[in-house]
Specification:
Largest sheet: 3 strands, mixed
Number of strands: 3
CATH superfamily: YefM-like domain
CATH topology: YefM-like fold
Strand order of the largest sheet: 1-2-3
CATH architecture: 3-Layer(aba) Sandwich
Number of helices: 4
Shape: elongated
Number of domains: 1
Strand content: 15-25%
Length: 82
């Protein structure tokens, strides 16, 4: 992922905001070192969990796990944690 300089980000903020709203996260940093990531704000917020958990649950951050096989069945989890 390309790291945008703060200067470049300031100059093109409106277009970058449009990209983020279209679900394309943007990394911002200095001297090519990532310092922040700009992602779309979740449309749905669960008031029972933290802000970061809401962001993670509603962002593509963990989409890569959808292709991973399930390691435990629901029965395994109930047996272990209930």
């Amino acid at each position: 992922m390309k790291v945008l300089s703060t200067t470049e980000f300031r100059k093109k903020l409106p277009s970058f905001l449009d990209q983020v709203v279209a679900d394309a996260p943007i990394v911002i940093g200095r001297r090519n070192k990532p310092e922040a990531i700009l992602i779309k704000y979740p449309e749905y917020l669960n008031k029972n969990i933290s802000t970061i958990s809401n962001v993670n649950a509603n962002s593509p951050s963990f989409d890569f796990l959808k292709d991973e096989p399930e390691l435990y069945s629901i029965k395994d989890l109930i047996t272990r944690y209930v």
